[in-house]
């Protein structure tokens, strides 16, 4: 994408994370995320990719190393949106109230937030569902609420932790397309954690392949296919070539640890 | 083709059966009771028949009604104080692990010591019998509210806690928008138990106190009627206590259903 600037939004330098149990989840992990980038962290389960994401979000502290925010984005504000693997909605609250939550926590009165919340729900395809309760929605729609909640504050950085892993393929493809559309239409940056080679190639402009525990960067791939990407791209030879390359480096990353 | 209609029909039958079957059992029991008393010619000072009990309920209403009000007042006051105290303490516990660790064992001690064993002591130390009764009922009703609410406040989804933290939520916001709603089903479950227990607590304490005179409740009326061998009145008072318990239970069940029907599994209709 031509709009990717060289400015970094967040930089991880030599970051290590050891849990209380003694498990070393991340070791000397480096990551630069440029503004307006769509970066995927790709690796097997337990490679520390979620840990890295949580550290960026400010949920927990790194044991060593540093996380820098050259662009001045801050924790505990509306600069960062987070989408969990589960929709993680409040079951007692309507779709509207769930999406309104980040603004409510910032002290924005309901009346003033209403327009933004409704517009965001519209954008993720939930127009007309604002009064529904989460239990009345399908898995895909719950995930849309979760995405709306993350986007409602117009964050500079959107962190997504395997958000579509639990969804069926049809729903996942649809949400992939919608996510690309949303991202292209706005000025935010995405860090997307996944264990799917195909999903990461389809979505990102850069893929960071990680080694199994402790997680470290094994390889990086630029996916220079142009956007908009659609179902044509999914069956193109360009897509397949990228998938093959990324699969290879993932396989190498897995062996590295065994050797 | 006829499957949905069959299902409708069986649903309707079940709805009717839910009311009709217990009613049939009740009527059968009353008839059997009446027959046993009549056939064996049991004197009413040993076992009165159901009609006599009903009659006594009617004729003794002047004595029983003020007593019922006294018992109700103690029950609901104790329950109210238990709700305020139990919820307040649970919120305090949720704020600090240390407070919980320090005080929870004493709440347990209060709960496991039989009220009937503490009641005489409380009656000695507290001059005002009314307040003594209130304390007894409160001790019994307080624990289920405390322990359920504590559990509920701590059972908010961890990722939601993370999310709140991510957006820089204050302690108060975390409590108001996350922990308290998450605790509601637990609290309401505790309330349903506590409602029945506060009635039991107030009746038991009154038995221990044996208060006479104007301000005495249903338990004392039972004792008094017992001394006078007025067995029908004993039964009538007993019926009133049971009915009160049932109404309290039904009230809180309905309240719980109303509060949770939009979202909680316990109150949401299954769709298959």
Architecture blueprint of SSEs:
The complex is a heterodimer of chains A (259) and B (272).
Chain A: E1 8-18, E2 24-34, E3 38-42, H1 49-57, E4 64-68, E5 80-83, H2 95-105, H3 110-123, H4 139-151, E6 157-161, H5 169-185, E7 189-194, H6 197-203, E8 206-210, E9 217-222, H7 231-234, H8 237-258
Parallel strand pairs in A: 3-7, 3-8, 5-6, 6-7
Antiparallel strand pairs in A: 1-2, 1-4, 8-9
Helix pairs in contact in A: 2-3, 2-4, 3-4, 6-8
Chain B: H1 3-39, H2 50-59, H3 61-95, H4 97-112, H5 115-125, H6 129-153, H7 158-166, H8 171-209, H9 218-227, H10 231-260
Helix pairs in contact in B: 2-10, 3-4, 3-6, 3-8, 3-9, 4-6, 5-6, 5-8, 6-8, 8-9, 8-10, 9-10
Describe this structure in words.
- The complex is a heterodimer of chains A (259) and B (272).
- By secondary structure, chain A is of the alpha/beta class.
- Chain A has eight helices and nine strands.
- Chain A has helices at residues 49-57, 95-105, 110-123, 139-151, 169-185, 197-203, 231-234, 237-258, and strands at residues 8-18, 24-34, 38-42, 64-68, 80-83, 157-161, 189-194, 206-210, 217-222.
- In chain A, helix 2 crosses helix 3, helix 2 packs parallel to helix 4 and helix 6 (197-203) crosses helix 8.
- Chain A is globular, with a radius of gyration of 18 Å.
- Chain A starts with 7 loop residues before the first strand and ends with a helix.
- Mean pLDDT of chain A is 87; it is low at 1-5.
- In chain B, 82% of the residues lie in helices and 0% in strands.
- Chain B is built from ten helices and no strands.
- In chain B, helix 3 packs across helix 9 (218-227), helix 5 packs across helix 6 and helix 8 runs parallel beside helix 9.
- The longest helix of chain B is centred in the C-terminal third of the chain and has 39 residues, at 171-209.
- Chain B is flat, with a radius of gyration of 24 Å.
- The interface between A and B is medium-sized, with 25 and 21 residues.
């Amino acid at each position: 994408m031509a709009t990717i600037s060289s400015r970094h939004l967040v930089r991880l330098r030599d970051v290590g994370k050891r849990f209380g149990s003694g498990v070393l989840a991340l070791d000397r992990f480096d990551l630069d995320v440029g503004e307006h980038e769509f970066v995927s962290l790709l690796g097997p389960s337990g490679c520390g990719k979620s840990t890295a994401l949580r550290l960026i979000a400010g949920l927990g502290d790194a044991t060593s190393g540093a996380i820098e925010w050259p662009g001045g984005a801050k924790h505990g504000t509306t600069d960062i949106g987070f989408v969990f693997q589960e929709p993680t909605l409040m079951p007692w609250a309507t779709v509207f109230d769930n999406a309104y939550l980040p603004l409510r926590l910032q002290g924005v009165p309901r009346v003033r937030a209403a327009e933004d919340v409704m517009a965001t729900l519209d954008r993720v395809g939930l127009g007309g569902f604002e009064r529904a309760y989460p239990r009345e929605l399908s898995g895909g729609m719950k995930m849309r609420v979760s995405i709306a909640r993350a986007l409602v504050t117009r964050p500079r950085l959107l962190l997504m932790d395997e958000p579509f892993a639990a969804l069926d393929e049809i729903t996942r493809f649809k949400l992939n397309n919608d996510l690309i559309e949303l991202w292209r239409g706005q000025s935010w940056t995405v860090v997307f954690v996944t264990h799917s080679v195909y999903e990461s190639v389809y979505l990102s402009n850069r893929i960071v392949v990680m080694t199994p525990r402790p997680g470290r960067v094994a390889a990086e791939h630029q996916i220079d296919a142009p956007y908009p990407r659609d179902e044509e791209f999914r069956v193109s030879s360009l897509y397949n070539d990228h998938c093959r390359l990324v699969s290879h480096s993932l396989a190498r990353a897995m062996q590295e640890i065994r050797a | 083709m006829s499957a949905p209609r069959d299902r409708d029909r069986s649903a309707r039958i079940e709805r009717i059966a839910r009311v009709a079957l217990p009613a049939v059992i009740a009527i059968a029991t009353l008839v059997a009771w009446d027959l046993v008393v009549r056939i064996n010619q049991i004197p009413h000072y040993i076992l009165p028949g159901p009609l006599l009990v009903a009659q006594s309920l009617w004729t003794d209403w002047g004595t029983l009604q003020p007593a019922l009000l006294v018992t109700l007042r103690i029950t609901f006051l104790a329950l109210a104080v238990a709700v305020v105290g139990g919820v307040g303490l649970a919120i305090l516990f949720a704020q600090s692990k240390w407070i919980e660790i320090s005080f929870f064992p004493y709440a347990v001690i209060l709960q496991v010591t039989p009220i009937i064993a503490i009641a005489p002591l409380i009656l000695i130390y507290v001059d005002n019998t009314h307040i003594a009764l209130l304390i007894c009922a409160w001790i019994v009703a307080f624990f289920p509210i405390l322990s359920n609410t504590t559990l509920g406040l701590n059972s908010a989804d961890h990722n939601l806690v993370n999310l709140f933290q991510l957006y820089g939520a204050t302690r108060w916001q975390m409590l108001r928008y996350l922990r308290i709603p998450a605790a509601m089903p637990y609290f309401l479950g505790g309330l349903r138990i506590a409602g029945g227990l506060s009635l039991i607590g107030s009746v038991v304490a009154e038995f221990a106190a044996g208060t006479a005179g104007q301000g005495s409740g249903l338990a004392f009326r039972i004792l008094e009627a017992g001394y006078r061998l007025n067995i029908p009145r004993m039964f009538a008072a007993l019926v009133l206590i049971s009915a009160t318990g049932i109404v309290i239970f039904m009230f809180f069940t309905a309240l719980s259903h109303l509060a949770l029907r939009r979202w909680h599994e316990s109150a949401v209709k299954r769709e298959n």
